[in-house]
């Protein structure tokens, strides 16, 4: 029986992917084989010795100590793209809220007083304060062309906007999904002078912190709208507010309220709603539950942020999975130890991803505990499992 610890409420549709005859799933559980998490901050958490995998029901993994997991040979799975439609819809809504001054107009209407005749007169007198502009013909810059960025870019094209995208690491898969009408920029600085709106769909790293700052704001057109539904810290909030006060930026729409932003008349802040739809929560939970189950039962890896993707169809009597530091001669050592024990390898795959490597192999005979102990004692080996 495999034990799964849940650190947040996980959609029932996801939990249903873990059959009860093989899995025990609970929010309080000792010696878990895996953890399912959404937003819970795991950085101060003691990592159980039994832990084999972590699944994040979402895309970002800032709340998970990935480096500590890597040191233990524990893959961290996420659900890229499962919330893409939800975020795309919110970005489109954010552009409309900003360019049509909808939040300011709604606030004006809410605070109208008097009888209906007086309110009607106030509406006609006040509506000119909220004149906006339309999206067709405007240019959107999309920074980050992963699952979300591609959907945002394509939706903007469908709305009649011109789109310029920037992503130096765009995958072949995402490139095939991207509208051929999306133009390519070679850098953010190349993109900035040409856009009326800009939206970010990148992780928060030291290299992406304050991607929009005071210097880059000066490169942008007057009246630009900035949207951040990715991660707090990608945009320098203070610099953007200063640019709004100076008339450089028309509006700022983001998912990360703070005291500087929440009451500003030209800023729209939402309470981190990017993936807050029933559909997105279900999609994320189903995807990550399937990933965990495939790894726990078969050793295959898909959508891990710290281990390479590996898929090997089952053959033979037993399956061995080894996570190790990415150092020379490790595959030879594994093969040598198995050979000395009289275990013949039928099929094997070995992949690396930066500092870690992963070997998955099927054998003709059972793998006895002594072999596992021998491999586990090898310098550089982090985790050994027999499946």
Strand content: 15-25%
CATH fold category name of the largest domain: Rossmann fold
The arrangement of helices and strands along the chain is: EHEEEHEHHHEHEHEHEHEHEEHEHEEHE
Nearest-integer average pLDDT: 95
Q: How many structural domains in the coordinates?
A: 3
Number of helices: 13
Distance between the termini: 13 Å
Tell me the helix content. 25-40%
Superfamily at the CATH H level of the largest domain?
Answer: NAD(P)-binding Rossmann-like Domain
Radius of gyration, whole Å: 25 Å
Number of separate strands: 16
Give the uncertain stretches in residue-range form.
none
Largest sheet: 7 strands, parallel
Spatial strand arrangement across the major sheet: 8-7-6-9-10-11-12
Computed structural class: alpha/beta
Provide structural commentary.
With 387 residues, the protein is of the alpha/beta class. It folds into three domains: 1-80 and 278-306, 3-Layer(aba) Sandwich (Rossmann fold), CATH 3.40.50; 84-269, NAD(P)-binding Rossmann-like Domain (Rossmann fold), CATH 3.40.50; 308-387, 2-Layer Sandwich (Alpha-Beta Plaits), CATH 3.30.70.260. It is built from 13 helices and 16 strands. The protein has helices at residues 12-15, 66-71, 84-99, 102-110, 116-126, 147-158, 172-177, 188-191, 214-217, 237-245, 278-298, 330-340, 369-376, and strands spanning 2-6, 23-26, 34-37, 53-56, 76-77, 139-143, 162-166, 183-184, 197-200, 224-228, 249-254, 267-269, 318-325, 345-353, 356-363, 381-386. The longest helix has 21 residues, at 278-298. The radius of gyration is 25 Å and the shape is elongated. The two termini are 13 Å apart.
């Amino acid at each position: 029986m495999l034990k799964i610890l849940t650190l947040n409420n996980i959609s029932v549709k996801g939990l249903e992917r873990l059959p009860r005859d093989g899995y025990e799933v609970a929010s309080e559980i000792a010696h878990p084989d895996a953890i399912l998490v959404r937003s819970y901050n795991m950085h101060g958490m003691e990592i159980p010795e039994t832990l084999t995998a972590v699944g994040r029901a979402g895309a970002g993994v800032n709340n998970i100590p990935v480096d500590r997991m890597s040191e233990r040979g524990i893959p961290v799975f996420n659900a890229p793209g499962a919330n893409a439609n939800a975020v795309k819809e919110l970005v489109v809504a954010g552009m409309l809220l900003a360019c049509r001054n909808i939040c300011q107009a709604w606030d004006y209407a809410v605070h109208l007083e008097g009888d209906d005749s007086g309110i009607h007169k106030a509406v006609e007198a006040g509506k000119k304060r909220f004149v906006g502009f339309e999206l067709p013909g405007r240019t959107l810059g999309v920074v980050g062309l992963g699952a979300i960025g591609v959907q945002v870019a394509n939706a903007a094209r469908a709305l009649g906007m011109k789109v310029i995208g920037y992503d130096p690491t765009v995958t072949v898969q995402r490139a095939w999904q991207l509208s051929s009408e999306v133009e390519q920029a070679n850098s953010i600085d190349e993109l900035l002078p040409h856009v009326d709106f800009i939206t970010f769909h990148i992780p928060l790293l030291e290299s992406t912190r304050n991607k929009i700052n005071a210097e880059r704001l000066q490169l942008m057109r007057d009246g630009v709208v900035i949207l951040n539904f990715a991660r707090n810290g990608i945009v320098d909030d203070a610099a953007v507010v200063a640019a709004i006060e100076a008339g450089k930026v028309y509006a700022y729409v983001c998912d990360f309220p703070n005291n500087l932003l929440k009451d500003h008349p030209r800023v729209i802040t939402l309470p981190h709603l990017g993936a807050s739809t029933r559909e997105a929560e279900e999609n994320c939970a189903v995807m990550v539950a399937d990933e965990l189950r495939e790894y726990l039962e078969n050793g295959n890896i898909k959508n891990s942020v710290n281990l390479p993707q590996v898929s090997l169809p089952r053959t033979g009597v037993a399956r061995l999975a080894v996570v190790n530091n990415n150092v020379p001669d490790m595959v030879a050592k594994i093969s040598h130890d198995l050979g000395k024990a009289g275990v013949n390898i039928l099929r094997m795959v070995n992949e690396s991803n930066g500092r870690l490597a992963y070997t998955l192999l099927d054998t003709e005979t059972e793998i006895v505990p002594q072999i596992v102990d021998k491999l586990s004692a090898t310098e550089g080996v982090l985790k050994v499992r027999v499946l």
